[in-house]
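Input record, target 12 of the design panel.
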């Protein structure tokens, strides 16, 4: 939201004006949205919950191992782009 814009003159600028300034579109993407940003933040939280919590790593050992494989594949794919 861009509070400095007049909503009667340019409602889009008022409602979405700072979005493009704060959220660039990654080169590997053709579009970007608040849902994608939220998805990435949630993914990071879930990853940290498992990696940073030893009890969770023990309880979900199989999940933790699968996530290690998935994250390594994703990291490898992201570096190739």
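The sequence produced for target 12 reads:
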């Amino acid at each position: 939201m861009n509070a400095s814009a007049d909503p009667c003159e340019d409602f889009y600028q008022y409602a979405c004006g700072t979005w493009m300034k704060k959220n660039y579109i990654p080169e590997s993407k053709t579009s970007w949205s608040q849902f994608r940003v939220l998805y990435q933040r949630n993914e990071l939280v879930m990853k940290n919950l498992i990696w940073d919590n030893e009890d969770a790593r023990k309880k979900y050992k199989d999940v933790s191992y699968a996530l290690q494989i998935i994250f390594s594949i994703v990291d490898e794919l992201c570096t190739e782009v």
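Helices lie at 11-16, 19-22, 34-51, 54-59, 61-80.
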